[in-house]
Design brief:
With about 200 residues, the chain is an all-alpha fold. The chain has helices spanning about 5, 15-30, 35-45, 50-55, 60-80, 85-100, 105-115, 120-150, 160-180, 185-200. The relative contact order is 0.11.
Length: about 200
């Protein structure tokens, strides 16, 4: 992220990164509908005008917070792919990274709010698709490497469909955890994801 995003340019001016962090917490606590620029400004001990200067609207704030969060995860995924370990372990780490930490996980609450708005907002839909493609691309890379190493009995031409299936599964499981549906917890859905992924990738024998 550009340096101007993360520094204070004048005394009393709140850096954008701090605004985004606090916005994520506020949205996780009460939802985007309950958040106003003035309330967020109070949490940060700054002016509503300062926040409006950077974001202009709640949709823009939501989108920028999500992009900022996903940029950080992109760096973690890059390190995961470069890690010197087995493809099976990398895939397990990928699953753990994708899933929420627990109910009302701030990152996942951003996704829930985004999904509720994408149908009527082409900009939000385009941003969602771009973020989804990044996860899909990294998962396809991971699966392809594992297939070439004989760790997954998965023909390379089937990798895109397998990656799409895994991500759809993870989205559904994540929604259960973040919204506390059917008593789902991070541990239970991680076990479910592992079993399902084993069936999809079917390690070669």
């Amino acid at each position: 992220m550009a340096a101007e995003v993360t520094r204070r340019r004048r005394d009393g001016e709140i850096a954008q990164e701090r605004i985004l962090e606090e916005a994520m917490r506020a949205i996780a606590e009460n939802g985007l509908a309950a958040l106003t620029m003035s309330k967020l400004a109070q949490r940060l001990d700054t002016s509503g005008g300062h926040i409006l200067y950077y974001f202009g609207s709640k949709d823009r704030l939501l989108l920028d917070a999500l992009r900022w969060s996903e940029d950080r995860l992109g760096g973690i995924r890059e390190a995961l792919l470069a890690r010197r370990t087995t493809a099976v372990r990398r895939l397990d780490d990928f699953l753990a990274l994708y899933l929420p930490e627990g109910p009302r996980d701030p990152r996942w609450m951003l996704w829930v709010e985004l999904w509720a708005r994408t149908a009527g907002n082409p900009e939000l839909l385009q941003a969602q698709e771009a973020i989804d493609r990044a996860w899909q691309s990294d998962l396809e890379t991971l699966l392809t490497r594992g297939a070439r190493q004989g760790r997954f009995a998965l023909p390379e031409q089937d990798v895109p469909a397998a990656a799409d299936e895994i991500l759809a599964l993870l989205d559904g499981l994540s929604t259960r955890v973040v919204l506390s549906l059917a008593g789902a917890t991070r541990d239970t859905v991680l076990d479910t994801a592992r079993r399902a992924v084993r069936r999809i990738t079917l390690p070669a024998r």
